[in-house]
Write a structure and sequence with these properties.
The structure is a homodimer. Chain A is mainly alpha-helical and about 160 residues long. Chain A is built from eight helices and two strands. A two-stranded antiparallel ribbon of chain A has the order 1-2. The longest helix of chain A is centred in the first third of the chain and has 21 residues. The relative contact order of chain A is 0.11. The interface between A and B is large, with 70 and 70 residues. Chain A binds a DNA duplex (23 and 23 nucleotides) through helix 6.
Chain lengths: ~160, ~160
DNA sequence: TATTGTTATACTCTATAACTATA
DNA sequence: TATAGTTATAGAGTATAACAATA
């Protein structure tokens, strides 16, 4: 019987060990995404925000009067799962929730002054925290990256 | 009192509605990743594999004799959460799990013939499914994209 | 003492169904 | 009938602590 390598593979370079997976763009995407997500999570922690709630707050800041349903669409999550997030943002007085006059089923969400201020600070914190992992990317690289990513999204 | 736009924002272009978030590379990364992850999930469904278990199988195929702990490191997940995945792969006879002679605490994981065959079919299915979302990317674009992503990972 | 694999457990995220109030 | 917001619930995915076997 042939002797096969069965014992510890020992020290392989990082680039070799997951070579099978590196062929897939999605794998490379995920690894890079994890880095930026972790960095953002840490940066937001000081402001008592998670990436999800920061995203929700951002979209409300950028789209005053947006409804929870529209927000759920943008965030690609279920309406039902958005409820707690919106609840929390409202209870912290970061957003207001008022019924729409033309369609009383819907709510109009708006960031309060407090919400806009926190959003600005949190966004700045992420930009600052992003500097490290994005250090090797020039402004041109970043534009190029976003452009390539958008092509994937367009399908 | 000033009248403010409170009613439905109506039809905004997709590019405008999340403009606040598009400034963050991480957001663009996530959106593109979601597309490829969904496509891969669908492609793997026919082979009764999830992205996680396919990744584990791939890494075992590519690194015969790897231990569960090493696998957990590569997959960036806890050892404890890997147990069920390895259990399932073994119970489906896709991998074998044998104690190492030099260190009897550890297991050597190897793909079976059946496992290698399924892996090849599943990988081909993902490559096929990836064609659509990657249609707009030339071979050069893809290399460039992977290169930019690796820079983010390097920090 | 430290490490590997394992179990149990909890917490987050996500998905589905059903309800209410409005349309 | 259909839609918006909500509730309840179940399923993934993930993180932590503790244990037995082994080093």
């Amino acid at each position: 019987m042939m002797k096969e390598a069965e014992e510890p593979i020992g020290e392989l370079f990082d680039g070799d060990i997951d070579a099978v997976m590196r062929k897939f763009i999605g794998y490379n995407l995920k690894r890079a995404y994890i880095v930026l997500h972790q960095v953002a999570t840490q940066a937001l922690d000081a402001h008592d925000l998670r990436v999800r709630s920061f995203s929700a707050l951002s979209l409300i800041v950028g789209n005053p009067g947006v409804s929870p349903s529209e927000l759920a669409d943008m965030l690609q999550m279920e309406r039902s799962n958005l409820v707690l997030i919106v609840d929390e943002l409202e209870s912290r007085d970061l957003i207001s929730r008022t019924r729409m006059k033309l369609d009383r089923r819907r709510y109009a969400l708006k960031a309060t002054l407090r919400g806009r201020r926190l959003h600005e600070k949190a966004a700045a914190a992420i930009r600052r925290a992003d500097e490290r992992p994005l250090l090797r990317l020039t402004a041109e690289d970043r534009a190029q990256l976003v452009n390539l990513l958008s092509k994937i999204e367009m399908g």
